Amino acid sequence: MEVPGKVIGGKVGGKVGGKVLGLGKGGKGKTGSGKTKKAPLSRASRAGLQFPVGRVHRMLKTRISSDGRVGSTAAVYAAAILEYLTAEVLELAGNATKDLKVKRITPRHLQLAIRGNFFVHHSPRGVSVCGDEELDTLIKATIAGGGVIPHIHKALMNKVPVPPTQTKKPKKN
Questions:
Q1: Which residues form the Histone H2A C-terminal domain (predicted)?
Q2: Which domains are assigned to the chain?
């Protein structure tokens, strides 16, 4: 059945690929809708995160052996966990940096923030303990350039002699 319409592929109207050509308005009719198209939002911004959810999802898919099937909420959850742990470590490293009166976080400050549960720092603001016991158990990696944790065993410390109490009675004159 020939239907008058547009010339497509050398034919006027008719059927091409199972579709009837030349009938109806066709298309989505974007000219008169009056709606403005919203800018696309990333999954990280939808979840209120700074870490890239799409990249975490891609990394999870490449490292999972079950045909790359990973749920979309798993990537959001993993990105949220990574962001929380990073913020925690950076906060503790920033505190160590501030206590040592420098302006740049170095690997040494990261080491003190993670493993410095034995490190007690005496600052003008008082005594502060650098480090977090939970982070120390969680992170077992060696930090390059982190140095060593200052710790002296109690048995090696100099014992301060206790002044003897005065047991002598004062002399009577």
A1: 133-160
A2: 43-151 (1.10.20.10)
